[in-house]
Amino acid sequence: MALEHAILVSLLERPGSGYELARRFERSIGRFWTATHQQIYRVLRRMEADGWVTAEEIGQDGRPDKRSFSVAGEGLAVLAEWLRAPVQAEAVRHELAVKIRGAAFTDDAGRAALIGEVERYRADHETLLSTYLNGEKRDFPDLDGRDAGQRLQHVVLRGGIAYERMLLDWLDDVLDTLRAL
């Protein structure tokens, strides 16, 4: 997937400025596709030049005008083509998993340091799970009356919640195993 596709989906859900898109990436889209503000602005400029999005200047009292982007017909066609394309399994690169395997070749001090790292990593993911669960309560208190887009956003969030729960279970197993060595 390219950042362009994530931006097209976000803009179809709700048009917005580059800043608003960056905030959406931080708040929700970033659960499965991350991008910096600079990347978003750079890709938006390219997408506008390619005719995938259009921008409307919106005046703001006491602040500079903002540009609100929406998907153009060409962008919709690109997205439709991408949606029909098969998805390839992603190659997973997980540095912590390699470190865990490497623990067989270190001393007690090295394993103790790794246990600390796994505990830190676990705490980060516990915080992320809490963020997802709070977002679910805030954004999806009831699915009655939700449109297809909202239902699909929720199913993606539920996937993130399930992933974090699985990861936390695995990290607990890792910690038990490392402590037993």
UniProtKB/TrEMBL annotation:
Record-linked InterPro entries: Tscrpt_reg_PadR_C, Tscrpt_reg_PadR_N, WH-like_DNA-bd_sf, WH_DNA-bd_sf
Gene3D superfamilies according to UniProt: 6.10.140.190, Winged helix-like DNA-binding domain superfamily/Winged helix DNA-binding domain (1.10.10.10)
A Pfam family recorded for this sequence: PadR
Top-level taxon in the UniProt lineage: Bacteria
Transmembrane stretches, start-end: none
Alphabetized UniProt keyword annotations: DNA-binding
Domain annotation Transcription regulator PadR N-terminal: ranges: 7-80
GO molecular function per UniProt: DNA binding
Domain Transcription regulator PadR C-terminal as annotated: residue spans: 92-178
PANTHER family with a match to the protein in the record: TRANSCRIPTIONAL REGULATOR YQJI, TRANSCRIPTIONAL REGULATORY PROTEIN
Designated name of the protein: DNA-binding PadR family transcriptional regulator
